[in-house]
Amino acid sequence: MSPFEDVYKESKFHPKLEGLLLPYGTAGFRSNANHLDHIMFRMGLLAVLRSQNTKATIGVMVTASHNPEEDNGVKIIDPMGEMMSTSWEGYATQLANAEQEDLIDALKEIIEKEAIDLSLEAKVFLGKDTRKSGVKLSEAVISGVSALGGHSKDFGLVTTPQLHYAVRCQNTKGKYGEPSVEGYNKKLSAAFIQLTNNAFNCTDDQKHLSVDGANGIGALKLREIECHLKKSAHITLFNDGSKRKLNDQCGADFVKVHQKAPIGIEMNPGERGCSFDGDADRIVYYYTDSQRRFHLLDGDKIATLISIFLKELLTQVSSQIHVLNKVHTCIHSEAEDQIHQLAEDPSANDEAKRAARMLQSSVNVINQTIGDAISDMLLIEAILAIKGMTIQQWHAIYTDLPNRQIKVKVADRRVIDTTDAERRAVSPAGLQEAIDSLVKRHKKARSFVRPSGTEDVVRIYAEAETQESADALAHEVSLAVYRLAGGVGDEPKPLH
């Protein structure tokens, strides 16, 4: 029996829902879990082809991140732990949406275009988050892998970053680390402990952190790595999945959108809290001040803190490392090798060696494949401890302008196309010009729009000199999106 006969026979057990069309985007495929069985089977097929195309192990992660628990999704991981090449996203969409009778032709078209040798061995790593639907949907992926003659390794319950990490470790033949959750836990925790050994006089109170696990996989995996951290961190875990549903009034997306702490978390004024998202690839920090006002520290504040810390260390070793012009927040591999040599150089001065060793530990705490809530949390906690910095002092590094985030429902989110790191809209025609005109009406203002990766909505961000002005700008831009990008339902109403 040919592989195509196996695929056709097996695909009948994973029939496509009539009329269902889904695009593969930056978040992969996401929808109600009941709609995804055929897509999972077909992504198993695609993962085999991608593995043969790259001659490497490919990852398939079953998750819907911050979506409600009844949803699920899937995304494919490329050899170095990065997201699947955008050149293959079209193949994913084509394969997922092909009618049953056209499935084999769609497969053959990809094979022909990419000159794929089906005789090559294909290996696929598989993982899932804590959604109940993940068990059945993972089985569908494995069925697709097997139908096309590939081999799969099921990691079971893992965070998305852990699977990305394992894929990279496998394809670097262990140079990046051991391709297992235990290997991930040991590498990150050892580096964190080494880094925090430079935090002198850090009290137990200063080590304390409240963590919102979003009732998801991040809570489960934080418990596992916590056992390796010894007394270097004091973590109180909330929303661990024992009482409420995944992402139900908790998680990073909820906190950022609603600008308030998640349900169930208990913190005193000035204490640090953080929230993971559903698959633990994103994190936000926050605290309340003495007047109980809520303060959010999201991606920009996190990137600033880490960049300042790494820059200070790099400055201390700059005379010894001649490739620092290539170094940013991720350490270039050539610089990494020289930092290692400096850390072991008996003739180097103590300050440079200490800085080099701290850089080594920082690199090992960072998951270099993808954003990682657990990894980011460990690095942030180490930096705050080393610098003796409170979360209020961190927040005061720079002051955010008042801002507002809202979303507008549209008939098809693909009508929005952006450029310049999603800061400018390329289409539909006239939208960016309208935004530019609206921004000019407000002081210290800017506004961006971007399509959601998971649903037919457009997300709008606006900031300005005052909260009233930011709210007004957000509403004005939402009207422009509604009118130019095919808004559905009632026209957006003012926020006040």
TrEMBL record:
Gene3D superfamilies: Alpha-D-Glucose-1,6-Bisphosphate, subunit A, domain 3 (3.40.120.10), Alpha-D-phosphohexomutase, C-terminal domain (3.30.310.50). The keyword Phosphoprotein applies. Its cofactor is Mg(2+). Residues 193-284, 338-388 form the Phosphoacetylglucosamine mutase AMG1 domain. PROSITE patterns: PGM_PMM (PS00710). Its EC number is 5.4.2.3. Keywords: Carbohydrate metabolism, Cell wall biogenesis/degradation, Isomerase, Magnesium, Metal-binding, Phosphoprotein. The keyword ATP-binding does not apply. It catalyses: N-acetyl-alpha-D-glucosamine 1-phosphate = N-acetyl-D-glucosamine 6-phosphate. Residues 52-89, 114-173 form the Alpha-D-phosphohexomutase alpha/beta/alpha domain. Catalyzes the conversion of GlcNAc-6-P into GlcNAc-1-P during the synthesis of uridine diphosphate/UDP-GlcNAc, a sugar nucleotide critical to multiple glycosylation pathways including protein N- and O-glycosylation. Catalyzes the conversion of GlcNAc-6-P into GlcNAc-1-P during the synthesis of uridine diphosphate/UDP-GlcNAc, which is a biosynthetic precursor of chitin and also supplies the amino sugars for N-linked oligosaccharides of glycoproteins. This is Phosphoacetylglucosamine mutase. The lineage of its organism: Eukaryota, Metazoa, Chordata, Craniata, Vertebrata.
